[in-house]
Design a protein that fits this description.
Largest sheet: 8 strands, mixed
CATH superfamily: ABC-type transport auxiliary lipoprotein component
Oligomer: single chain
CATH topology: Rossmann fold
Number of domains: 1
Helix content: 25-40%
Shape: elongated
Strand content: 35-45%
Distance between the termini: 42 Å
CATH architecture: 3-Layer(aba) Sandwich
Number of strands: 8
């Protein structure tokens, strides 16, 4: 109940403001600058409720999503997700040879990771949630190595949209660790 009140207060205050707040996902660490197996990230698709609007989203009840036009992603969420996942995956796999879809030379790649982000928002329980279906292929033969759906949660350290973006960044890292574990 406390979190729902905080969300309602944030949304009300945001509606009164004149400026906007813009957020990005951040990797946990830098990937090596070069070397290692070539990994292609993408395509990454984002669920329509996220892709069609730039807003950070809280799910306040099973059938209700809340957004504030004062709290938006700074740019395309799919691109930011893909870059952040690639950097994290490079870090966990010890490679700087990460390529974003579409790439020019598939012959340089050992793996392709395709991701469908089904859910990616805050919850009324005070968590951030990521549900992503992903597939890893070996290249150049295109053989499916694994296909999984990961449902991950991360607690928000405190109320607020910035804390939501921070928790969502940690979720992208959790996903990159799960993918690295399958590839290693």
């Amino acid at each position: 109940m406390k979190l729902l009140s905080a969300i309602a207060l944030c949304l009300t205050l945001a509606a009164c403001g004149t400026g906007g707040n813009y957020y990005v996902l951040s990797p946990v660490a830098k990937a090596p600058s070069h070397g290692g197996p070539g990994i292609g990230i993408g395509p990454v698709t984002i669920a329509d409720y996220l892709a069609e609007r730039p807003y950070l989203v809280f799910q306040s009840s099973p059938n209700k999503m809340e957004v504030s036009d004062q709290h938006q992603w700074a740019g395309d969420l799919a691109s930011n997700f893909s870059r952040t996942l690639g950097t994290n995956l490079g870090y966990h796999m010890g490679t700087g040879n990460i390529h974003q879809y579409p790439w020019t030379r598939e012959s340089e790649l050992s793996y392709q990771i395709c991701i469908d982000v089904n859910r990616f928002h805050g919850t009324a329980d005070g968590d951030a949630l990521l549900e992503a279906s992903w597939r890893a292929y070996s290249l150049p033969d295109g053989r499916l190595i694994t296909s999984r759906t990961s449902t991950l949660t991360e607690p928000l350290e405190s109320d607020g949209f910035e804390k939501l973006a921070e928790a969502q960044s940690r979720l992208v890292d959790q996903l990159s660790r799960a993918i690295a574990a399958e590839l290693n």
